[in-house]
């Protein structure tokens, strides 16, 4: 089966205030995708949306509360701005449109046809489903910090993004869209010299 997981990356800068609190500015770039296969032809939907996003979050960290601990948790909440554009995979490699038949097959012509030939999904998302759009997002972050040196650490975490739109997948019904971004990162902290 085709995976809905997509890669992405983020760049983040954080200013700490005291031992616990910090404010982080993050830019995230990536894609979201999903494919649905069904014996009901109209339900065979797929999309891939490109994402460009910036957010500002209040972080609560525990690494300075427990300086000797090698593993400490952190949480965060914020607000952000997301720009996206949904695309769909509607054509085979040879350019033929997909026609989904009631038996679940993908064919080159509409059902029924004696001259239709089977097609394979190309997974090339080249058909724009809508114009570029934007929305407000609320990021909820949780993760762990692995201390390696006094000013060098690794983090593993996840952020759940709640949006104010349900159009990222170009299906404008139901609840607003939400998505999960998990990440691994390396961090360097600039220490003050007095």
Give the SSE layout.
Layout: E1 8-17, E2 21-35, E3 46-61, E4 71-88, E5 99-100, E6 106-107, E7 127-128, E8 133-149, E9 152-163, E10 178-188
Antiparallel strand pairs: 1-2, 2-3, 3-4, 4-7, 4-8, 5-6, 8-9, 9-10
How would you characterize the overall build of this protein?
The chain is mainly beta and 194 residues long. Helices cover 0% and strands 54% of the residues. The strands form 2 sheets. Strands 1, 2, 3, 4, 7, 8, 9 and 10 form an 8-stranded antiparallel sheet that branches. It has a two-stranded antiparallel sheet with strand order 5-6. A hairpin with a 3-residue loop joins strand 1 and strand 2. The radius of gyration is 22 Å and the shape is elongated. The model has no long low-confidence stretch (mean pLDDT 90).
Q: Indicate the overall shape.
A: elongated
- Number of helical regions: 0
Strand residue content = over 45%
How many strands, which pairing sense, and closed or not: the largest β-sheet? Answer: 8 strands, antiparallel
How do the SSEs run, as a string of H and E? EEEEEEEEEE
Which structural class should the secondary elements be placed in? Answer: mainly beta
Mean pLDDT: 90
Overall helicity: under 10%
N/C terminus separation: 58 Å
User: How many E strands?
Assistant: 10
Enumerate the spans where pLDDT stays under 50 for 5 or more consecutive residues. Answer: none
